[in-house]
Amino acid sequence: MAKNNRFETVYSQGTIDVVKVLVDKETGVNYVFAKEGYAGGLTPLLDENGNVVITKIEK
C-alpha cells in the first residue's frame, strides 16, 4: 500500500495527553488534534478572529 504524506505534524506536545498541530499539505489548512485517555478529536485551528489558519504551501 502506498504511503500517504498529505498531513505533516508541525507541533507536538505530550505523550499520554497529546496535542498536535497538523498541516494539510494540499490545502494548507491547519488542524488541532487532541487526545486524552481513550478520547480524541480533530478540529481546524482558528486565529483570534475565528478564521481558519492556512499555511502557504510551496509546490
From TrEMBL:
User: What Pfam families does the record tag this protein with?
Assistant: DUF6440
Entry superkingdom = Bacteria
Instruction: Report the residue ranges that make up the DUF6440 domain in this protein.
Output: 6-55
Q: What is this protein called?
A: DUF6440 domain-containing protein
